[in-house]
Design brief:
The protein has a 22-stranded antiparallel beta barrel. A three-stranded antiparallel beta sheet has the order 4-3-7, with no helix packed on it. Strands 1-2 form a two-stranded antiparallel sheet. The longest helix has 8 residues, at about 210-215. The chain contains four helices and 37 strands. The radius of gyration is 26 Å and the shape is globular. By secondary structure, it is mainly beta.
Length: about 625
C-alpha cells in the first residue's frame, strides 16, 4: 500500500466492524499516505457499509470457525463442516417464501442476504485457514478488484475437507461465489449481482450404536481412539447442492438537474431484480439396511434425489419524497417454482404426485424514513390466490440512535407462508419416509427489542407461532394444533481492568405454550476471561490469551435424522454440559493467528457431552489457523 505510512486512530464495534463514531475504544492502524481504511468498503445486501477490518478483537475469536459467524446459539457436532443443533432460535429474519427444506444441511449454505459486495482502491485479498480434525482443513480465499471506482468484481471460494475423529464423519464442502457492482459516471444506472455455486457433502453415521454408546459413556480405554467405535450407518452420505444467479439493476428516470420538483419528489427510479436458484438434495447409500430406517420396497429408480427451483422477477418503482419522510418503493414479484422427484421411489407408498409446482404474483412496498434521530423501515408483501406460494409478509422496525452513546431498535414481523416443501412431499425407498401433506400456512408473529450501548447490550424477543410444523418422534411431519409462545432474552457485557477483560453473554428462554414440540434450554451462558497486550519493540505483536466457559441447562434436544437432513423430536435423552476452551491469538501487522484447545474438560468427569442423542460432541482437540489480508 505504499512505502510512506502514517498512523490513524479509529474504533470498532462489538461485532468487529469499524465505526469511526464509536468511542468505546481505539486502536492504531498503519495506512499509506494515499489510502485510508474507509476506502476499503464492504456493502451488505441491504447496502449498509462497513470496512475491511484487520484488528484483533474478542469477536474475531468467536467468529473464527467455518461459518465465520458467532455461533453462540448453536451446538456444533464434533467435526467442522457437519450440522448444528439449535440452542436458540431467531424469527426476525425469516424468508417470505418456502424453501426446499432439509434444514440440517443448510447452516453453511449462503443465501442472497449473505453475499457481500466490495469497493477497494487497490487489489485486496484475504485468506482464512484452519486445521481440520484428524485430516483436512478449512480454506477461504477472497480476491476483490476495482477496475474503476464505479466497477468492482470479487471472487470468494471456501473449501472444507475434514475427516473427523469418528467413523463416517467426513465433511467435504465447497462454496464459490463471485459478486459485482457497477454504476455509470452520471449515477443514473446501477447494477449489482452475484453467482453462487455450493455443495455440502457429509458422510452420515447415524450416530453410535448402543454398545458403542455405552463404551463411550463408561470411558472404556479400548475406545480412546474414537475411530474404533461402531456407528449405525457404514456406507451412507448426504449431498446438498445449489446454484444461484442474482441480478439487480435500476435506472433514474431524471438526472438531478432535470428534476424540476426535487423538493417534492426526487431520485425516481425504475428497477428489476432477477433471482433464480436451483437446489438438489440426495441421501445416498451403498448398502441399505432396515435396522435404522425400517422396511424397504424400492423401485428400480436410478436417481433418488429431489430438485427444486425458484425463479423470481421483481419490478419496482422507487422515489424519495418529503411526503413519505424518505424513500418509498412499490414492487411486484412474479415467481415460479417446482419441487420434484423423477419418479415414484417406493412401490408400497401412496404417493400420487412426484412434483409440486406453480406460480404466483405478489404485490408489496418498502419504506425507509428518517426523522431526526429516528430511522423507520418497513417491508410488506402480499401473495393472493390459492398457489402454494400464497401468503403475506410484513416487517417493520424503528431505530433510535443517540450519537455513539446508545441505540434502541424495535421490530415487528408478521409472516404467513406454507412450510418448506419437504414437509409437503417426500419420497424414499424406505416405507416410513413417504408422504403427501396438505398443511396450512405457518403464521409467525415476532416482536423484538434491542439495545446497544457502551454500558450493556441486550435483546428481547417474544414469538407466537400458529400451525408450527415439525418432525415427530417417528420422523413424520406434523402441524401443532395449538399456539407456540417463545420468549428469548439475551444480555451481554464486557468488564475490563487494565489488560484483562471478562466478556459475558447470558441467554434466558421460556416456552410458555407448545413446549411439547418446541424445545430449547432455559439458560445458555458464555464467559470469556482474557488478557490482551502488545509485545516486543514498537508494539510489533498484539496478543490475546484467555479461556471461554460455555454452559447450557439440560433439555430434550432434538435428534438428528440423516435421511431427512432434519432434526426430530425425541423424549429419551436429555443433554446439557459445560465446556472450557483455551486460546492464544496474536496479530502481526495484517495477519491474525489463532491457536485453540477445545473442550479441555472432556478428560475430566463423566462422558456426558453430546450434540444430539448418539452423537458425541468433540473431545479434547487442538486447532490453529490464521486470517491474512493483502492490500496491493
Amino acid at each position: 500500500m505504499g512505502t510512506r505510512a502514517k498512523k490513524e486512530k479509529y474504533s470498532f464495534n462489538s461485532d468487529g466492524t469499524i465505526d469511526s463514531l464509536n468511542n468505546s475504544g481505539s486502536v492504531k492502524v498503519t495506512l499509506s499516505a494515499k489510502t485510508k481504511y474507509t476506502d476499503y468498503k464492504i456493502f451488505s445486501f441491504k447496502k449498509d457499509t462497513t470496512y475491511i477490518d484487520t484488528t484483533l478483537t474478542i469477536q474475531k475469536e468467536y467468529r473464527f470457525n467455518f461459518l465465520r459467524k458467532d455461533n453462540f446459539e448453536l451446538l456444533g457436532f464434533h467435526n467442522q463442516g457437519q450440522t448444528f443443533n439449535n440452542l436458540g432460535y431467531s424469527f426476525d429474519a425469516i424468508s417470505n417464501l418456502p424453501d426446499i427444506g432439509f434444514r440440517g444441511k443448510q447452516f453453511n449454505y449462503l443465501n442472497v442476504e449473505d453475499v457481500k459486495y466490495y469497493e477497494v482502491p487497490t487489489p485486496t485479498s484475504e485468506i482464512m485457514y484452519r486445521t481440520g480434525l484428524q485430516q483436512g482443513q478449512v480454506l477461504e480465499s477472497l480476491f476483490s478488484l476495482n477496475f474503476s471506482k464505479r466497477f468492482n468484481i470479487s471472487f470468494t471460494y471456501e473449501g472444507i475437507r475434514s475427516l473427523g475423529a469418528y467413523r463416517q464423519a467426513l465433511a467435504s464442502n465447497g462454496n464459490f461465489r463471485t459478486s459485482f457492482h457497477y454504476i455509470t459516471k452520471n449515477n443514473r444506472y446501477a447494477l449489482r449481482g452475484h453467482i453462487a455455486s455450493q455443495d455440502i457433502l457429509n458422510q452420515e453415521s447415524g450416530g453410535l450404536t448402543d454398545t458403542a454408546l455405552n463404551s463411550f459413556i463408561e470411558n472404556d480405554i479400548n475406545f480412546s481412539d474414537r475411530g474404533r467405535l461402531d456407528v449405525r450407518l457404514n456406507n451412507s452420505e448426504s449431498l446438498l447442492e445449489g446454484t444461484r444467479f442474482y441480478l439487480e439493476h435500476d435506472f433514474k428516470l431524471f438526472s438531478k438537474k432535470d428534476s424540476t420538483s426535487s423538493k417534492d419528489f426526487s431520485n425516481l427510479k425504475i428497477g428489476h431484480i432477477l433471482n433464480s436458484e436451483t437446489k438438489t438434495y440426495d441421501f445416498i447409500q451403498g448398502d441399505r439396511t432396515t435396522a435404522v430406517f425400517g422396511e424397504i420396497n424400492a423401485t428400480d429408480a436410478n436417481d433418488e434425489g429431489v430438485e427444486s427451483n425458484l425463479a423470481n422477477n421483481q419490478f419496482f418503482l422507487e422515489f424519495n419524497s418529503k411526503y413519505v419522510l424518505g424513500k418509498f418503493k412499490i414492487k411486484t414479484d412474479i415467481t415460479s417454482f417446482y419441487y420434484k422427484y423423477d419418479t415414484i421411489l417406493n412401490t408400497n407408498s401412496n404417493i400420487s404426485n412426484t412434483e409440486l409446482s406453480g406460480s404466483a404474483v405478489s404485490f408489496g412496498a418498502d419504506w425507509k424514513a428518517k426523522i431526526k434521530n429516528f430511522q423507520l423501515n418497513a417491508d410488506a408483501s402480499l401473495t393472493p390466490g390459492s398457489s402454494l406460494l400464497s401468503g403475506s409478509y410484513l416487517k417493520g422496525e424503528a431505530i433510535y440512535k443517540k450519537d455513539s452513546v446508545f441505540s434502541v431498535r424495535a421490530n415487528l414481523l408478521l409472516s404467513s407462508k406454507l412450510p418448506n416443501f419437504n414437509y409437503l412431499l417426500h419420497q424414499s425407498v424406505y416405507d416410513a419416509y413417504n408422504w403427501e401433506r396438505n398443511f396450512s400456512n405457518v403464521k409467525t408473529r415476532d416482536l423484538g427489542f434491542e439495545l446497544e450501548s457502551k454500558w450493556v447490550n441486550g435483546s428481547l424477543h417474544v414469538t407466537h407461532i400458529d400451525n408450527y410444523t415439525y418432525f415427530d418422534e417417528n420422523n413424520a411431519p406434523q402441524q401443532f394444533e395449538e399456539n407456540v409462545t417463545y420468549l428469548k432474552a439475551k444480555v451481554s457485557k464486557e468488564f475490563t481492568y487494565r489488560k484483562f477483560a471478562l466478556n459475558n453473554t447470558l441467554m434466558y428462554q421460556k416456552v410458555s405454550a407448545g413446549s411439547s414440540v418446541f424445545r430449547v434450554p432455559e439458560f445458555v451462558t458464555r464467559n470469556t476471561l482474557y488478557y490482551s497486550d502488545y509485545w516486543f519493540k514498537k508494539k510489533a505483536m498484539q496478543v490475546q490469551i484467555g479461556a471461554t466457559f460455555k454452559y447450557f441447562t439440560t433439555y430434550n434436544a432434538n435428534a438428528y435424522n440423516p435421511l431427512l437432513g432434519e432434526f426430530t423430536l425425541q423424549n429419551d435423552t436429555k443433554i446439557g454440559f459445560p465446556t472450557v476452551d483455551f486460546f492464544f491469538n496474536a496479530q502481526v501487522r495484517r495477519t491474525r493467528l489463532f491457536f485453540k484447545i477445545d473442550n479441555v474438560l472432556s478428560s475430566l468427569g463423566d462422558r456426558n457431552y453430546f450434540s444430539a442423542p448418539n452423537y458425541p460432541y468433540r473431545d479434547f482437540t487442538i486447532r490453529f489457523g490464521l486470517v491474512w489480508n493483502w492490500f496491493i
